[in-house]
Every structure is written in structure tokens, then in C-alpha cells.
Amino acid sequence: MGKKKAFVLRLPPDTMKAIEKWAADEFRSANGQIEWMINKALKEAGRAKQRK
């Protein structure tokens, strides 16, 4: 996967709480859940970079 870029993400507390709950339900960290959500959205929109 290569290097990952770190950045600050500001979310409303209720949104973060919902993400943390979802992550726990799927045995992921909140960070891992956010990555999964972004990757899923990119794929569904046809904007994910194709892996070779």
C-alpha cells in the first residue's frame, strides 16, 4: 500500500461516536473504519485508483 499521509480530520462528536461504534462492531479501529469508508466510496464512485 505504500506510505500513508497523516492529516487532521474534524468531525462532530456524534459523527465520531457513530464511527467508533461501527468500527467496534466490525473489529476495526476508528481510523481503519474511516479508511474503509473512504475507499468504499471511491470505488462506488468509480474514482479509486486501479491497482496493477
**Helical element count?**
2
Main sheet makeup? none
Radius of gyration: 13 Å
Low-confidence stretches: none
Number of strands: 0
The outline comes out as globular
Helix content: 40-55%
Strand content: under 5%
Structural summary, described in words:
The chain is 54% helix and 0% strand. The chain is an all-alpha fold. The protein has a domain at 13-44. Helix 1 packs across helix 2 (30-44).
List keywords for this structure.
52 residues; mainly alpha; 2 helices
Question: Which helices and strands appear, and what pairs or packs with what?
Answer:
Layout: H1 13-25, H2 30-44
Helix pairs in contact: 1-2
Give a quick summary of the entry.
By secondary structure, the chain is mostly helical. It has a domain at 13-44.
